[in-house]
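hey so i finally got around to running the thing on that chain from the lab meeting. sorry it took forever, my laptop kept dying and i had to restart like 3 times. anyway pasting the input first so we r on the same page abt which one it is
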Amino acid sequence: MVSLALRTLNKRPDAFEIHHVNARFSNTLEDIGDSSLEKLGLSIKYLYQAIRIRMRINRPILYYIPGPVKWSSLLRDWALLTVLRSIYPKVVFHWHAIGHGEWAHGSDRLTLDGPRWVDRFARKISARVLEAPYASIAVSENSQKDSRAVGSRQALVINNGIEDPCPDFDRTVAPVKRDQSRAIHETEHKVFRILFLSHGTLEKGIIDALDCMEAALEACPPDWCFETTFVGGISELIVTRFDSIADKLVSKWPGRIKITKRAYLSGDEKHRCFVDHDVFLAPSRWESFGLTVIEAMAHGMPIVAAASDGVQGVLPNDYPYLSPVAEPAALATNLIACCSNLGTENSLKQGRALRERYLSLFQIKDFANQLTRSFLELGARSAAEAGINNTHPDSGFHSSDAQRDSTRNTDPPLTLQVYLADQNPGHDRSYGISRMSQVVLDALQRDGRVIIETITSRTSQQAPASVKTSHVLPWGTRRKLVRLLTDHFHPLFESNRSHESIHYFPKGYLPLLSGHCKPSVVTIHDTIIQYDEDFYPKWRRPWEYGYWAMMLRHTLRNSDRILTVSESSRRQIQAFMDRHEIPRKPVTVTYEPCLYEHIPQPEQPEKDEFVIHLASVEPHKRTAHLIRWWHEEEAKGRPLPLLHLIGTVPPEAIPLVAKTSSITKRPFLEDSELQLSYQSARALILPSEIEGFGLPALEAYYLGTPVCFVEGTSVEEILSVVTRKGAFTLDSKESLLTAMDEVMAMSSEEIRQCGLALRETYAAEKVADRMVKAFRCVPTGT
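ok and heres what got predicted. didnt touch it at all, straight out
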């Protein structure tokens, strides 16, 4: 991946000047982590090369990969970083080997060999040399513990990727996989071919794999047989132990298990291995990124895995065959379930879904594009902090919190023509978007670098009071047909527009007459309508799904700049572009401000014994799901706080609400009443399975109320800068109840500190600053 990173950045000599110290310390896998005088000499050599480079160039960014928690790696990092960080003020850590940062700051997941006092002392040294890097790059969403632990000024996630090993998957691999699994399903004497592909070490779980096979043979039907292949070689440290266990298995179950060892494979041999086997077994105890797992995903293979950080980070959040680390019995249970499912329609869909996930997130081109955009942004920020204006038009501000320039440039203000007539709060889906638009436009107006003009209708969202110029169309746009006609033909009604102005669409859709709206900037909040079409196709009529997908495709192809509100939403948009074969454009993450930031953060708000949920009939909001859970737990006699449902309850759940004494249904509330509900509640529950941002989570914390949210969503992303308390999964009632207990146990001071930190991170002026920088990158003029 490092080699690919260098090749990627070197392809842009117009943007990057790359100086590479090829710091290679090991020649074999066994060498990694070993100490030697030769490595000491290499450290001195590489340090000298880095110092020579620093003497020749100005304002460099040092790209460095911290090692694992092993003595040789630690000593190397201490020696190199102590010197390099004194002469390279800005360092970017790429955490390919996870654990060093979190260990340095007290994590008990790792310990260093030797006495405990030595481990404690070593942690302090590492904490010092790793402290507050300019940026950190994590290789998956679940591998960010190091970035957070060391206090990175900017935190990026760039998924590793691979070339598609089967670009003709549908023609060659899919039919073979389908025939293999159906043959197993239809035969009485079942033989399952299991593949383990990794270097055979304890950390990679090779002994756990053997123990898993033993537990599976104990529990599976007596006519099942397994052919298990171990590819990648076996460490000399455990090869004797491996052979002993393997021989015992074969002796205990003769004819029912066959174990084959193969060395490292690549190219066609490796591809053939993936194709020929039925299930991929990934029991690794410690991974920063599940590279072999995404290879299996690319081949559409079902995967049975242990939930190490990296593997959990690449598989879907609700993946059914994921078990705790170092628990072979649980791994065996999932293996049996997976094998039982082979050949069914559900199994084929799972394989296809894994293949689609690989295509949307883990291709080599995605890694290259994300890396390029990230370093363009880092370079632009570095230059801005040094007072040099070299912001590159391709850069996208999609990492955490961009710092504002210390001085304003003297460019004349930009004119924004903002279209608001498509926002009719209470009459369409734009309620949250309208609240965001109000705060953003007010912040942009106060920023002083833009002049805002709005286009509204008699009934639509209006401009905030601070915006002086507003063009009001002489009709309302609440009726669907009138609104659609207005959306597409309003450019014909505009007059005297300056050719230097920019059209901005906060709701994220360009009119069909977009040629009259050049240049244009859109904020696309999410791709939830596409999600609903995929998972809830009956929720809307087919023509509605078709229309909105057409509009989003049109917008992505024709907009001059695309903004969005979270990293999660940016990935949704990129997946949509790939799915519809739209050439990828940079997507800038600005995040969202909150309407309540002008309200002082409560210190000790009085709380009543209830929690709130903003009820919705939209299926992805999972209101009915929450109501069923509440009803079931009440029926068991479990003590629950009163659940206030604010909004519209899905019709199918209304009978359950009537039968559940611990649920109270409330209507939509005016903002003053909603604020009181937030402040009085013990918690806000957000069971939504997909969001673009999750504004209610900020609203709740700003008013002194913690939040329960679904893991893996944008809500987790925006709250994770201050807390991870409150996360739960939609496949477990217990996880929700645990999350609720967790947040309800938070002290008033802890909640207050979370609210204050969120206010700092998502302040309206910071969002406005990111937006202005993006607007500045849009060429204007005739």
